[in-house]
Specification:
With 318 residues, this protein is α/β, with parallel strands linked by helices. The chain is built from 14 helices and 10 strands. Helix 1 runs parallel beside helix 6.
Length: 318
């Protein structure tokens, strides 16, 4: 854990807010001993907010919660392409960002962030059904329709509700480390390892069983990262040819099989650095990267830090 400082999370409920989009960050970051977060659900003003799908929300806080928050989540809402949120909401989001808060949109909440101008010139995503509408309404936003979420530092966007969960776990991973993120995923019975580059929607004329088979292969590989995992080994487990496996795997995840294995190994190394006192050489052997030099190279390439720097960061104040 980077520190024991309490992080403050505001979930901004707009008219027509989607229930799952509201509930995901509220539940992921709920205050508990293992989670140094405090959550407030707010609206443009305190009181009743009419949501989508037959639900309404009674919020105790208004936009003042955005002045308090370190992270502001904007859940998706109905008909985002028709009109922008009220100007007071847009202004409050801009003010929160200028003060240093991170803004994170789930699904069509990206339209509210786009209305602030903060996404101009940046990559962003939203639910696949609305990607073209977002690009048309906000042409200066670089809309990426083929990812689960996009992290642009102080502004983050995600696709549908399930991708919002991936985004929340991604934020947890950055704040508290891999161990905390995986713990939260287990508590929520969610997949702990879905990268932002994974495709959110791959249209096919005929559903194929390969998706589930490859999910099983990824899970199988995660439990054998210390063993040799070549393309041939993975394809054999999936019972397809290496060529077919490689092509379909990249479509499903956004990575080649070997890129995915490397990132999974680095993730496992991160968790071991956080939770154990094993040496870099021992951890490199445990996760299938061979030598400490190899682990250091990939850490620097993927994370921009050495294993030692990473360990010091995530054990300070623990």
């Amino acid at each position: 854990m980077t520190s024991s400082r309490l992080r403050r999370v505001a979930v901004l409920v707009l008219e027509g807010a989607k229930p799952l989009d509201v509930g995901i960050p509220a539940q992921v970051f709920t205050t508990r001993a293992s989670m140094p977060y405090e959550v407030r659900v707010c609206g443009a003003a305190p009181g009743l907010v009419t949501g989508g799908d037959g639900l309404s929300y009674h919020v105790a806080d208004g936009l003042g919660a955005l002045e308090w928050a370190d992270i502001v989540f904007v859940p998706g809402y109905r008909f985002p392409d028709r009109e922008d949120p009220p100007s007071v909401v847009v202004e409050a989001l801009v003010a929160a960002h200028e003060r240093g808060a991170r803004l994170a949109a789930i699904s069509t909440g990206a339209f509210a962030l786009a209305a602030t101008g903060l996404l101009d010139g940046r990559r962003a995503t939203t639910h696949w059904h609305y990607t073209r509408a977002l690009a048309a309404k906000h042409p200066r936003v670089r809309v990426d329709e083929n990812v689960l979420f996009v992290d642009e530092g102080s502004v983050l966007t995600s696709a549908g509700a399930a991708s919002g969960l991936d985004l929340c776990l991604h934020i947890l991973r950055g704040d508290l480390g891999v161990a905390a993120s995986n713990h939260a995923a287990r508590r929520l019975v969610a997949a702990p390892y879905r990268s932002g580059g994974q495709a959110q929607y791959v249209p096919r004329s005929v559903p194929e069983p390969l998706g589930e088979r490859f999910a099983a292969t990824r899970e199988w590989a995660l439990h054998r990262l210390g063993e040799p995992l070549t393309l041939a080994v993975l394809a054999r487990h999936a019972r397809v040819s290496p060529r077919t496996f490689s092509r379909r795997f990249a479509q499903d995840t956004g990575y080649t099989p070997m890129q995915w294995v490397l990132r999974a190994r680095v993730d496992m190394a991160r968790e071991l650095l956080e939770r154990s006192q094993r040496s870099v050489e021992q951890i490199a052997a445990d996760v299938g990267l061979g030598t400490g030099a190899n682990l250091r190279f990939h850490f620097r390439h993927l994370l921009g830090v050495t294993p030692g720097e990473y360990r010091r960061t995530f054990t300070r104040g623990a």
